[in-house]
Amino acid sequence: MRGLAAGALTILATIFAVDSSAQDPPDSAELDRAFADLAEYDTGGDQDTIDFVRAYVDRATARYKIRVDAEARLLGVLQTRQSSAAAKRFAADQLYRLCDEDTVPAFHDLLLRKDTTDIARKGLERIDHPKAEQALLDALDRAAGAMLLGIIESLGNKGDPAGAQVLSRTARGGNAEICLAALSALAKIPGPEAMDALEWCRFNLTPRMRPHATDAYIKSGWLSLEEGDYQTAIYLFDSLLIDIEAIEIRAQGLRGLIRAERDQAVPTIIEALSGNEPALRAVAAEEAGKVPGRAATEAFIRHYPDLGPENQIIVLRAFAQRGDDAALPTIVLATRSRLPEIRLAAIESAGAFNHPDVLQPILKAAASGTEEEQGIAREALARLDAPRMNDALVKAGMSADNGIRYEAVKAMAARKTRNAIPVLLRIAERDVKEIRIEALKALGIVGTHHELPFMVEMFLDAWTGENRQSIAHAIVAIARKSPAGKIRTADVSSALKKSSLPDSVHLMLVQILGDIQDDSALPALEAHARTRSPESSTAALEILANWPNDQPIDTLQRIASAAKDDRQRAIAFDGFVHMIQRPESGRGVDRTLKYYQQAAKIAATPDEKRAVIKGLSQIKHSGSLKILETFLSDSQVADDAARAKEALSQSL
User: Fold this and answer.
1) Are 41 and 90 in contact (CB under 8 A)?
2) Which phi and psi angles does 180 have, rounded to 5°?
3) Quick check: pTM over 0.70?
4) Tens of pLDDT along 274-298?
5) 7-49, pLDDT tens digit by residue?
6) CA dist 185 to 12, 217, 521, Å?
7) What is the largest CA-CA distance in the chain?
């Protein structure tokens, strides 16, 4: 860096960055050298100069005297024709942080220079003062080409209504490129001034330019609406609804008018819905649900009875979108319409409200509507989640209507309505069989261990196989979420002891205990495995053989030793050996070998003997060798035993 050491500049920049208000600025000579170097800066050049100037501007933003000096120096870089393009871009970015109405004259001078026009107009865009707008307007008559197009764009970006009239004259008097630029700029200006200018252009420019003027006119209307100038927006969009306009223009006008009229838009919507233009009807239908305010809902309610079915459907769907509870009486009444299409729309609309008032008609539709209505209603029931909905469901469960009670019970289960347990118990005990079974299934979802005795009692009632199976699943579901121990299984185990029950019921009770899989069920299963009919005792034995831990191992050993039925003996033996092999048992090697010794004695088939041999080969202990030797004299498995013994001997 010329004249000022780079290290010194870095230190100064750091000081400015740390505390820009507490340090004195560098002296004029240092600043002169730094800004002179900045004028020669190019991309990738000396970063110290950039940091120094940026730090100086940081300080200038907080102190007026420094700001005046920094602004003048930055303008000097911009005004020097020899300054590089990169230097001017950086100087402009820093100047934008400081500029105000006092900078306007300098920007005005730079505006008509080719190398600085873009910098100047962007600076003027940032200055919120009439002087900045006037500087751009003054330059219009003196600019041409790209410079003129840029100034027109900046007038639009400023969005000042004062420029609308001048831009309108520019649009009329320029070529196509200038006209398009002026129209685009006018579209960025909200308010009646731009609207009037663009309205004139729509009807007085050349036919080629009129569509562009209309497009700008519509954009100006949306901008006025965004700015809260509803009066201008209403006039503008309403003016597009005349019949001579293309239908797509009228559709845009209708949409804008509805948005601008807000809660007063209902008559406009109803008029469009009652008209013959499908495009306008589609816009009205789409916007009906978006009109804000309860007053609009009440207006739709007033108009609803006078509408035809097609428009009533549109309004019902709008009610769903609006979500205003004031519409609920109208919706509920519509669910009882004689017209299927009205009922369906009303059910769909009701499903959008998380309100207890819609529950009864939705349940009614689910119970007795058409197939399509039932599907919509049940989907709606699944979505309802208002806090008071569960209480309303419980109340519906006590209804006199069988269909409604049935649907209410299913909904209680789907929603896991725990406060419904008393009602479900009552229904399960005495009601229509179809509803009773649904209540019992629901109890499986919401019930607790307190309901287990009742559930077992109901299970033992006279049910068909399918219904009894549903109750069994419910019992298992409750038991699995109950505290571990006898509380899960005591009632089922007690029922299993009743000899008067059919074998098929005993079999299902055994399966229930097997599905619960709590060790408290083992005594009942073990006793049943030895005393009942072959089918249910075999089922109990299979459950014991596949128990998740080795608690039944001694029972399996005893049955494998004494069973007279070959199938039961085989099941018991396989389960016994499988449990011996479990590594997680933690019983110790000596006890495991003792079990293997017992298994070796009762193994009857070659496969059973090989299972014992295989298990022993995994235990690296001299005791395994002794047990393996007992198989060496057995011609069926002697070779297997010999190989296992040899391999085990080598590993010891």
Assistant:
1) yes
2) -60, -40
3) no
4) 999 999 999 999 999 999 999 999 9
5) 444 444 444 444 444 456 677 888 888 888 888 888 666 788 8
6) 45, 11, 84
7) 121
Q: How far apart are the C-alpha atoms of 614 and 102, rounded to whole Å?
A: 99
Residues 475 and 453 sit within 8 Å (Cβ to Cβ): no
> What is the Cα–Cα distance from 168 to 179, expressed in whole angstroms?
9
Query: Distance between CA atoms of 199 and 214, rounded to whole angstroms?
Result: 8
Q: Judge contact between 525 and 510, C-beta under 8 A.
A: yes
Residue type at position 328: L
Residue with tokens 């509507």: 369
Angle (CA) 535-554-628 rounded to 5° is 110
The tens digit of pLDDT for each residue in 242-275 reads: 999 999 999 999 999 999 999 999 999 999 999 9
Burial 178-200 (b: 16+ CB within 10 A, else e): bbbbbbbbbbbbbbbbbbbbbbe
125 Cβ contact partners less than 8 Å away, ≥ 6 residues apart: 132, 154, 157, 158
Position 72, amino acid? A
Distance of alpha carbon 31 from alpha carbon 178, whole angstroms: 43
Tell me what pLDDT residue 565 has: 86
CA angle 4, 8, 12 (to 5 degrees): 115
Residue 590 pLDDT > 80: yes
C-alpha 339/C-alpha 341 separation (Å) is: 6
Centroid of chain to Cα 20: 47
Whole-number pLDDT of residue 21 = 45
Crossing angle for the helix pair 145-158 and 176-186, nearest 10 degrees? 10
Place of tokens 């780079």: 6
Please state the three-class secondary structure of 75-92 as a single string. HHHHHCCCCCHHHHHHHH
Q: What is the DSSP letter of 293?
A: S
**On the CB side of 285, how many CA atoms lie within 13 Å of its CA?**
16
Residue 571 has which token pair?
């099941």
- Burial label for 287, CB within 10 Å (0-12, 13-18, 19+), is buried
